[in-house]
Write a structure and sequence with these properties.
Elements: H1 8-27, H2 37-55, H3 61-82, H4 89-116, H5 122-140, H6 146-167, H7 180-183, H8 190-229, H9 239-283, H10 295-316, H11 320-341, H12 348-351, H13 353-380, E1 402-408, H14 415-418, H15 421-428, E2 433-439, H16 452-460, E3 467-470, H17 473-476, H18 481-487, H19 490-503, H20 512-529, E4 542-544, E5 548-553, H21 563-575, E6 580-585, E7 590-591, E8 594-595, H22 601-612, E9 617-620, E10 626-631, E11 642-647, H23 657-660, E12 671-674, H24 677-687, H25 693-702, E13 727-733, E14 738-745, E15 748-749, E16 756-757, E17 773-777
Parallel strand pairs: 1-2, 2-3, 5-6, 6-9, 9-11
Antiparallel strand pairs: 1-13, 4-5, 7-8, 10-11, 10-12, 12-16, 13-14, 14-15, 14-17
Helix pairs in contact: 1-2, 1-6, 2-3, 2-6, 3-4, 4-5, 5-6, 8-9, 8-10, 8-11, 9-10, 9-11, 9-13, 10-11, 13-19, 18-19, 18-20, 19-20
């Protein structure tokens, strides 16, 4: 029994068992409360890794190749689902169908060949039929029950991979089972064969040296990432630089196996007919009879170098460890160079591996946000009432006029954020302005305390009014620790941060010392920069006067709220009945010219709740520009328009979605957005280099399909003038019975000539040179 546990057959059974477990998780994913298409993609990726590793043990080169192709198809399908939200829905189904279709054809060819050669073909037949069924299902149910269809198709594919692993015929392989010399037709030349064998022995001895320098290289990269990213996360803080390092390794392997090795193999095939003749020409004069600088010596060195590459690549086909070592050996120097120069091209959000960690935190935090928020709020107030979480900025009364600023998504800490500094400070100093609110993504990339000084305190220096905030998805990547320490009062912050930690069984954060240290650091920075914060008790709050209700809603990462927040929200809305209701959310219902309410059922229900409660304005950040939509009444219980604002232009890279959206396809008939398309396009085209021209052409003419222009926005972010960032002032004037939303840009109040808008968005009697002000009746 003990001997069996060390056999390849036992490992084969274990791998198959893991695959079947992954299949079960995929098939039952829709039953989970936090079910996501991305999770199904993750299960497929892990199953692909199992098949890829186990594939090296297959008995023949043909079977090994088949296993690796199967793993590649599953891996690509998994990546497609992990990034499903980045793709157009039609593109998602198209690519999934293409991948299944490729496997369908591949299994069909194998089925015919095995039947012709009278070999067992049952496994091929089952795979062929399964792929056919999956293709039929994808086409038949496209756009219907997407999560269920992808769960079933993905789960069944993983089941098939499990049976493939379990039934695969294993072989006993040497490091290199096929003779390079035989492939070059040089097996009858002992002196050349001896050279090849000597090279192979050198490679065996060299493997240890290669491992050492690869490990050293990786350690250097790790400590570079660690120095940049720091430990300010939690007990799992080391995961971020580790993810960045894994990203470097992935890029290295991609460069090696998708660029360098295919290029070398292609060139080698071109010169293969001449290689034998060249070897024979070189060996006509024995090496010991040649002068030191003889041309034959130089050519022999090149031939030996090519033979060494042949051996390395061939060995990589028979051992996962060797394949990993060879890929890193070839690709790591290029990956390090790429990591160094990519930020120069302004695309660091895509290819900077340190930002890849944000994806890990997104996946982790998305599943925990509702529970974290619940426990944090319960620790501060176990049973919130309609009056809970009320803010009381000085000067706001039932009868006095007042105004406040709302700044969305500011926290990149670069020129795009700093360009608004003077306008924010100038307006915050006005007597009428009583407080400032930051909506969504206070600090990028991960909401960590270490980034607050550069990305929040310094850009806000000079603001002398109370600053409140609701978090965005990036703020939750830090489990809201930096946010709570900065914006909650110290007592509430301490209670909330400990409660959040306890909800994770004390596994995901440092202890009391770290909580105290973060609260102390926030207090120190507050004193140094003299920006008033620390007035909240929760990640959401409200302000209600006699006629006006300002209610904030924290929608986390997944555009949903927990039961406690929903209960409080309903009470607050009931208390606001008959008032002018202004709602500020973490995510918009309308953005990039499209309706976002159907992102999940909970978000759509929230939209309906606010409409039925009589909310006049719904404003949100998350999308990085200024947009305006008029939603007419859509039910018998809604008797007035609802006005939607996207206010996320406070400092992050600009969104392209609304600017490039075909105007006839906008989600509502009445709309406006800033920046307008023409000046934004002019800026991008003035700054695009030759490398970005094809991507920009595709983005502008085809909306970036299969991705979206919105997702590609960061690729065209240039931190130089002209800038098109924005924020708003909300003026509440009982004296005039008015609520006014005023838009500001880098040079002051925006004019209608700065905007792009539909008929009806600008009042008919207002000239194009007038300031952008949306006026509403208070009561």
């Amino acid at each position: 029994m003990k001997k069996f546990l060390t056999t390849d057959r036992f490992k084969q059974i274990i791998f198959a068992g893991i695959a079947f477990l992954l299949a079960a998780l995929a098939l039952f994913n829709p039953f989970f409360e936090t079910s996501r298409i991305e999770d199904i993609g993750g299960f497929l990726v892990w199953a692909a890794v199992l098949v890829f590793i186990q594939g090296f043990k297959r008995a023949t080169a043909k079977e090994r190749t088949s296993a690796h192709i199967s793993a590649l198809i599953s891996f690509l399908l998994g990546l497609l689902l992990i990034n499903a939200k980045l793709f157009d829905e039609n593109a998602l189904y198209l690519f999934a169908s293409m991948l299944f279709g490729i496997d369908f054809i591949r299994q069909g060819i194998s089925l015919l060949n095995n039947r012709k050669e009278k070999k067992p073909f049952t496994a091929n037949l089952l795979s062929f039929l399964a792929n056919m069924g999956i293709l039929f299902t994808l086409f038949l149910f496209q756009g219907k029950a997407q999560l269920w269809i992808l769960a079933i198709t993905g789960g069944l594919r993983i089941v098939g991979m499990g049976f493939e692993i379990l039934n695969a015929k294993l072989g006993v392989m040497d490091e290199v089972s096929e003779d390079i010399m035989e492939s070059l037709d040089l097996q009858d030349h002992p002196e050349i064969v001896a050279i090849a064998e000597n090279i192979e022995q050198e490679e065996v001895k060299r493997a240890k040296i290669d491992r050492h320098w690869i490990i050293t290289f990786l350690l250097i990269l790790f400590f570079i990432h660690l120095g940049r990213m720091g430990f300010d996360r939690s007990a799992y803080g080391i995961l971020s630089p580790l993810v960045a390092l894994v990203g470097d390794m992935v890029i290295a392997l991609i460069i090696a196996y998708l660029v360098l090795i295919p290029f070398f193999s292609g060139v080698s095939k071109l010169f293969r007919p001449f290689e034998k003749k060249t070897w024979l020409w070189v060996m006509k004069v024995p090496s010991d009879e040649r002068p030191k600088f003889h041309p034959r010596n130089i050519i022999q060195q090149r031939l030996e170098a090519r033979t060494r590459r042949y051996i390395r690549i061939r060995k990589a086909g028979y051992s996962f460890k060797t394949a990993l070592r060879t890929g890193l050996q070839m690709g790591l120097p290029f990956a390090a160079l790429l990591a160094a120069i990519i930020p120069v091209f302004g695309m660091s959000w895509y290819f900077d591996t340190e930002n890849w960690a944000s994806g890990i935190w997104d996946s982790w935090a998305a599943k925990r946000t509702d529970q974290w928020r619940t426990e944090m709020v319960k620790a501060v107030e176990s049973n919130p009432t309609a009056a809970s979480f009320q803010i009381n900025p000085t000067g706001v009364t039932a009868t006095n006029d007042f105004s406040f600023l709302i700044i969305g998504d500011p926290g990149e800490g670069d020129a795009s954020q700093y360009i608004l500094h003077d306008q924010i400070v100038r307006n915050a100093y006005k007597d009428l302005v009583k407080f400032v609110v930051i909506s969504s993504d206070v600090v990028y990339p991960d909401g960590a305390m270490k980034d607050y000084e550069k990305n929040f305190w310094l850009p806000m220096k000079g603001v002398n009014k109370p600053v409140y905030a609701i978090p965005g998805n990036h703020d939750w990547y830090d489990a809201l620790e930096g946010f709570a320490a900065t914006f909650f009062d110290s007592t509430s912050a301490r209670l909330a941060m400990h409660a959040r930690r306890n909800a994770d069984l004390n596994l995901t954060s440092a202890g009391s010392e770290k909580v105290s240290a973060q609260i102390k650091e926030a207090a120190r920075l507050r004193s140094e920069y003299d920006v008033p914060t620390g007035f909240q008790k929760a990640p959401y709050f409200q302000l209600q006067t006699e006629d006006f209700a300002f209610i904030t809603i924290e929608t986390g990462i997944g555009r949903r709220i927990d039961d406690i927040q929903m209960d409080w929200l309903k009470k607050a809305l009931a208390a606001a009945k008959g008032k002018f209701i202004f709602v500020l959310l973490g995510h918009p219902f309308y953005a990039i010219g499209e309706y976002q309410g159907n992102m999940n059922p909970d978000f759509e229900k929230l939209h309906l709740l606010l409409k039925e409660a009589g909310a006049t304005i719904a404003m949100a950040g998350d999308t990085h520009d200024l947009e305006y939509y008029v939603e007419p009444p859509t039910s018998s219980r809604q008797d007035k328009n609802m006005y939607h604002f996207v206010n996320g232009g406070g400092g992050a890279y600009l969104s392209l979605g609304a600017a490039l959206k075909p105007k006839e396809q906008m989600a509502q008939k009445v709309w406006a957005h800033y920046p307008a398309a023409a000046p934004l396009i002019k800026k991008i085209e003035a700054n695009n280099g030759i490398l970005k021209q094809p991507a920009w052409y595709w983005t502008k003419t085809h909306n970036g399909w299969p991705f979206s222009a919105e997702w590609l926005s960061a690729a065209f972010d240039y931190n130089k003038a002209p800038f098109f960032q924005s924020f708003v002032e909300v003026k509440v004037e009982p004296s005039r019975n008015k609520v006014t939303v005023i838009a500001y840009g880098p040079k002051g109040p925006l004019k209608w000539s700065d905007m792009e808008y539909s008929e009806g968005a600008k009042p008919a009697n207002v000239p194009n040179t007038a300031l952008v002000e949306w006026e509403f009746t208070l009561k």
